Amino acid sequence: MLMSLFQFTARRLVSQAYCGLKAASSSKTQKFRLEMARPSSNMADFREVFAKAKHIAIITGAGVSAESGVPTFRGAGGFWRKWQAQELATPEAFARNPSRVWEFYHYRREVMLSKHPNPAHVAIAECERRLSKQGRSVVVITQNIDELHRKAGTKHLLEIHGSLFKTRCTNCGNIAANYKSPICPALAGKGAPDPETEDATIPVEDLPQCEEDGCNGLLRPHVVWFGETLDPDVLTEVERELDICDLCLVVGTSSVVYPAAMFAPQVSARGVPVAEFNMEATPATNRFRFHFPGPCGSTLPPALARHQTEIIS
């Protein structure tokens, strides 16, 4: 049931929807709404469900990284210089001024190199390692591009919006991991977020260049920008994982941005327990079996700790 429903929705998203599109209220959306009692915050009950789960899907958003001090560039005050992220994170902005966009992403990369996983990231990675020894699996489906899950040790990771530390060539299309600091000499010392800072106006030939033989094309961050569709291959992997999961956690996400906003409600609609860990309730909260308010770094570690019934070899 979920697979056919998800296939239809994923195809529709790939062909019509764009990164950053907020979930709209419609009669079709309402059909998927699971009518149920107010979600429980009983940790003991959640732990019993957790102890029996064989395939756990964990969907994460910006909230899971907030306690690591990661800037979100969203909402009031979410500016880099005088621009908000949605003004810079677009193909059009990059075509107009690749130097300014690269300054913005260089700043974000440098900030992230100084950040570390918090207890929520660590709890997820430790849970994956522990359960894998029991023949159980954990997959992390993240909207974040900060790679803190990877830093914490998560192995089974689907980054639906890409990564700050990958580049894509605008000429040959090659995708490569890149952890250089700075990513190119011309960006050294650039990218300061102060509103009074002048653009560096770096020539295109001095911006990050493709290192594939004979290419030298201009590189761009391998992230999904506003106005771009998500990778259909990644969505197919997400679909496969959500179709087999028997427990789903939603961690630090507002549940208002497609396509991630539809993932957990569809899992819940087929009767799979969904637990939300978030600072506050979201538009999807009442569709889920559990809701645990508060900082993810405080609520998640006890939720994912070893259960007394687990057998450790």
User: How much β-strand is present in the residues?
Assistant: 15-25%
Quaternary structure state of the chains depicted = single chain
Intertermini distance: 36 Å
Radius of gyration: 20 Å
Give a quick account of the main beta sheet: strands, pairing sense, barrel closure.
Answer: 6 strands, parallel
Counting DSSP H or I runs of 4 or more residues, the number of helices is 12
Named CATH topology of the largest domain: Rossmann fold
Relative helix content: 25-40%
**What class, by secondary structure content?**
alpha/beta
DSSP E strands, number:
11
Sketch the topology as an H/E string, one letter per element. HHHEHEEHHHHEHEEEEHEHEEH
Globular, elongated, flat, extended or rod-shaped: what is the shape? elongated
Low-confidence stretches: 1-18, 21-36
- Mean pLDDT across every amino acid position: 89
Question: Any idea what the CATH superfamily of the largest domain is called?
Answer: TPP-binding domain
EC number: 2.3.1.-
Binding site for Zn(2+): 169, 172, 210, 215
Main location: cytoplasm
Protein name: NAD-dependent protein deacylase sirtuin-5, mitochondrial
